[in-house]
Amino acid sequence: xxxxxxxxxxxxxxxxxxxxxxxxxxxxxxxxxxxxxxxxxxxxxxxxxxxxxxxxxxxxxxxxxxxxxxxxxxxxxxxxxxxxxxxxxxxxxxxxxxxxxxxxxxxxxxxxxxxxxxxxxxxxxxxxxxxxxxxxxxxxxxxxxxxxxx
Length: 150
Prior knowledge:
Blueprint: E1 3-12, H1 23-38, E2 42-45, E3 65-72, H2 75-82, H3 88-92, H4 94-97, E4 106-112, H5 119-132
């Protein structure tokens, strides 16, 4: 069967997606998503009905939160993409577009290969991480856990 690494990260927007504030972020989504899909170790990402991005999905019933949900073969390919030449500039500019959130905004967990996670599952895993800290059920890139035994 095997396992793959699910990751969720959320961000609370400073302004609506169609605002001038968010223009550079929205304008770069296609490039960042294409780079993710072409990255070594990429498996799947959440997309809306348009197939382009996931900005229509809501998280924690908050209209200002946007979600990124994806699956990778493991933590190293995810890190390589996150800190790579296409995505890193967006990380560096995140305070221009998103509020600082004191609680964890990213969670990782292992899913059976071929079974992408749902937004509801991602909410549960992020909540678990916030309440219990890193565990094998929800963890961070700084404190990862091995794949479950098969």
